[in-house]
Structures are given as C-alpha cells and as structure tokens.
Design goal:
This protein is mainly alpha-helical. The protein has five helices and two strands. The longest helix is centred in the C-terminal third of the chain and has 21 residues.
C-alpha cells in the first residue's frame, strides 16, 4: 500500500495539472509549477488526512502519496526553473 502511494504520488504534482499535448504544445488546466507545486498545500493535505476517519490502509496510501509529492517538489528545486520558483534566484 505504501509503495503504491509513493509510486503514484511521485509524479502527481505534474499530472494533477491535467495536461494535454497538442502537437509539440503542452496545454494544462493548471499552469505548470504553480498550484500543484506549492508545498504548503501538500502539508495541508497531510494535516487533513491526519484528521480524517479513513481506514488505516487508506491513510497509509494518502501519506505515501503526499510524501512522494513533496519529494517531487524537492527534486524540482534542483532544476534551474525550480530554483527560481522556490528560492527566487
């Protein structure tokens, strides 16, 4: 359950933008590296999961999903545009 949450959540900040590729053009409902790439929202999601009454296995999946999404953001911070976004360099 934990591994499934980690694997699915690892790319969640990108696919939650609801991307569609038209030719060489990337079109998304949420612009790339905006709302889904804000760490505070993922932390709030973690808090909401902790306050929920979900079964333990659903919470485990949700925590793994959130942790791997946060790790995705951490890895993005090593890219040039990620540094600009997170550290205003």
């Amino acid at each position: 359950i934990f591994m499934a949450g980690m694997m699915i959540g690892a790319s969640a900040p990108d696919w939650l933008e609801m991307v569609k590729h038209v030719g060489n053009r990337r079109i998304s409902v949420i612009p790339h590296r905006t709302l889904t790439h804000w760490p505070v929202l993922w932390l709030v999601a973690g808090y909401l999961v902790s306050q929920s009454v979900m079964p333990w296995y659903a919470q485990l999946f949700a925590y793994a999903f959130i942790v791997s999404s946060l790790l995705h953001l951490a890895m993005d911070s090593f890219s040039k545009s990620g540094r600009r976004m997170y550290f205003a360099v």
